[in-house]
Amino acid sequence: MNFLEKYRNTVDEVNRLSLIAFILMLPYPNYIARICWVVFLVTWLLSGRILHKPQISLTKESLLPLVPVLGMVAYFFWGMLSVAWAEDKAAAWEQIGRLVNFLCLAIVLIWGVSDRIRWQQCLNTLVLTAIISVAVYMFLYYWLHNTERAFDKFNDMTQTINWFDVEELTMHIKHRLYYSSILCLAVPSVWLLHNSWQERFGRTKTVVYSSVIYIILTWGILISGSRQSLITLIVIAITLALISIVRKHKATGFALIITSLMVICVCLKLFHPRLQDTTFKEIVAYNPEKGNPALEPRIAIWHVALENPEQYSLYGVGIGNAPRYLLKKYEEKNWPMYVARQYAPHNQYLSVWIELGVLAMLLWLCLSFSIPLFYKGRTRQAALLYTETTALAMFTESVLGKIDGIFLLAATLLLIYLINREEQTK
Fold it and tell me: 58 pLDDT band (50/70/90 cuts)?
């Protein structure tokens, strides 16, 4: 083996390991994940793939799978154009700095990812890190509530933790929606890995392992405190059931639908700390005359954001400037808490509407929900299940406003790409 071959093998292996490390770090604060992502991009560049011919052709079959990531790139350039009329240039460029990751990802996918990187390994890593993270956060939650005991073994004062009344497992270490979204991605990953596990462990062990993992992931989502992710979990469960029905496993499909709905509804009613002793009417109540206008801040945010759509519907206020636009509205209404927190729209579709106009919002909405249509076979099923997590998360969070959201979307697109690549080579 000559020097050039050794160099390529070493760089490709570091590239593979950095991606695995990136996936491992997704359930945790993004500091290490950022480093792993940069190493992945740099080692891909050092591999010299960009010096070769792109691994796509100008055919429908070759270009369609790239439409989702190219749509993200189009959003990036549209955002760059809007910097020209954005009032807060610093916020605009900060957002562009996050979105440039989609441009980098598009380049990687166009020229191709190393054959060393297999989707099965990536999904196994995702499932493993999701399971471990539940234990890690439960451990941290307990000891951060019992610091006296941690520092003094003779101190018998401990705070009893009621694990059925945990409002936010990750506390402020990791935003609950982004954390629980990773757990939601792990749920269909277990299903996608079924055949691989069955070949390795056998049918009985695979069913047992899968069932235990589903319980752990559901439990993690429940105590994370994210209501949106519980809705997403229900949608994923129903989708998996419908796929089973289409495959003529009707009994299994209907059983899965009924069981999932019953279990999740019972958990929501009896155990979810953010829904106990609160009626739907109280959640959606809104009184703009009060300093604290709503029990659920998102209700007030969406109300004020949609009061004057004519102010931004044509071409928007500029990328990254939705929080600034809303801040002025909070000040006008004299909402001190909202001014102090500088709440963003907490809805990605609304964010795009405010920042780039109604046409951009409609295109983004179509892109977010149409991703599965650009694939075939098993990849379409995987894309549907993964897209449900990201598209639904965008209803209650401005996902692109944080690097955690960028990483969530980037990881999703990359996993779909890897599954599709193997599907096409069969």
Answer: confident
